[in-house]
Here is the input.
Amino acid sequence: MAALLAAYFLYMGENRTIIKGATLVNGNTEDIAIANGIVVERGKEITPQADDKIIDARGLVAAPAFVDVHVHLREPGFGYKERIATGTAAAARGGYTTVCSMPNLNPVPDSVETLQAQLDIIARDAKIEVLPYAAITLGRKGEELVDIASLHDKVCAFSDDGSGVQHDMMMERAMAEAVKYDALIAAHCEVEELLRGGYIHDGEYARKNGHKGICSESEWEQVRRDIEIAERLGCRYHVCHISTKETVEFVRQAKARGAKVTCETGPHYLIFTDMDLEEDARWKMNPPLRSAEDRAALIEGIKDGTIDMIATDHAPHTIEEKSRGLKDSAMGIVGLETAFAALNTHLVRKGIITLERLVELMCLNPRRIFRIEGGMEIGNRADIVLLDLEREWRVDSSKFLSMGRITMFDNREMTGDVAMTIHRGNVVYDNKTE
Here is the structure.
């Protein structure tokens, strides 16, 4: 197959790009040849032709480029927070070649017509692949189901992200309809009546500092409900940004029974706990940072395969919206430009997981579960990231490509970074051009 593809593109006169001397995640060294956006050859030594473009990857690790299934790009409707152009540039900076854009927009993508407003901006401005979600309910109001039949082949999945679907029968109707088209339901799980005005985790920090807490049950109770419905109906069901030990266990048990259940967590939930909080909205997101016991359960979940992927929940807000303290600031932080470095620094280099497992969590599993093209196998659309595992650097949010600047990683030392991102065979980010 490799020889046939390589010979075909040489015969057709297609100029190639050859990545020379890259170290693979398994430790082997290979050259990778790309033509017409496709990986056409891999081997210990690929002989360049006269017109081939050479990328010197000696000292770098080549991996399939990352996929983030949970990103807020804010357009249409909230372009003062982020734009598709800036958000996808930030994603490319972070090693991502595909992001899935959440539906809390204006207009909400709840019909073919309202979805088109987002698709038009993506076609015009996106630097990488953007796969939008459609809402589960009209206006994300939880009252009337969208027309899944007309939308399922135009979106990556269905989600009311930002809100949980409160009514059991509405979620049952959504899953029953999704099954007809093998569509994926991706749920933000939150029982609103259990929030009780909370805005950080209902734990030790909240009690010591006089804050209202969000109980863990507000997440896991809806997860439990949804798993029961999904398992009974045979629906493909994905739990967004899990944060509690109970959620991990419910998903683990569902997988053991053979249910079509998957889930994601975020880098911040794996690195910090509520006791790391400061009186600063850099630490405020939804769901909130939980207890040390929850963090330990999440880490065990990424080690044993219960948790399928890590997604950033990149959620930009303006400085003004995030300057009102823990109580009154908007929920959400940015994460696209720091995710790999943070996870490499705090998980891989500390021996908690291997680099191979991190690549599974950031690329291979999201591509498989969300059925997304791309990678670095022969015949794949050439979506490749080159990683400098030894680069030491300090996070400076003022230099982010995202319009968002709010991250708890600001001014922290990191080890490991993205050197280059290649999408469809084209370089979409090169750290030498920063």
